[in-house]
Amino acid sequence: MTPVHFSFTLAFTLGFSGLAFHRKHLLSALLCLEAMMLSLYIAMALWSFQTESTTFSSAPMMLLAFSACEASAGLALLVATSRTHGTDHLMNLNLLQC
């Protein structure tokens, strides 16, 4: 495994482990998701550059667009929950209550 592949794999793994083990705040969960998506974007961009494929060159841009949509939806949820509940702690968010 080359050092470039190792660094992207490590970045994705660190983002995933942060999402799995440190779920106290909604903002930290969103940041871990963004780290995972950005590592996937950079890996896909380098992969399409290395293979010199013109048919796959638009896939990293589509992934980046979906990542931006996911980030905006996550921030909207963060603002909505902080306004209604007063905090962004994930333990205080109970979906069964109105």
From TrEMBL:
Main location: mitochondrion
Membrane topology, as annotated: Multi-pass membrane protein
GO biological process, one term: ATP synthesis coupled electron transport
Keywords carried by this UniProt record: Electron transport, Membrane, Mitochondrion, Mitochondrion inner membrane, NAD, Respiratory chain, Translocase, Transmembrane, Transmembrane helix, Transport, Ubiquinone
Top class in the EC scheme: translocase
InterPro entries, alphabetized: NADH_UbQ_OxRdtase_chain4L/K (IPR001133), NUOK/Mnh_C1-like (IPR039428)
Annotated GO MF terms: NADH dehydrogenase (ubiquinone) activity; oxidoreductase activity, acting on NAD(P)H
Chemical reaction(s) catalysed: a ubiquinone + NADH + 5 H(+)(in) = a ubiquinol + NAD(+) + 4 H(+)(out)
EC number: 7.1.1.2
GO annotations of cellular component type: mitochondrial inner membrane; NADH dehydrogenase complex; respiratory chain complex; transmembrane transporter complex
Transmembrane domains' residue ranges: 6-22, 29-49, 61-81
Compartments reported by the entry: Mitochondrion inner membrane; Mitochondrion membrane
Lineage: superkingdom: Eukaryota
Pfam families: Oxidored_q2
Family designation: Belongs to the complex I subunit 4L family.
Role played: Core subunit of the mitochondrial membrane respiratory chain NADH dehydrogenase (Complex I) which catalyzes electron transfer from NADH through the respiratory chain, using ubiquinone as an electron acceptor. Part of the enzyme membrane arm which is embedded in the lipid bilayer and involved in proton translocation.
Protein name: NADH-ubiquinone oxidoreductase chain 4L
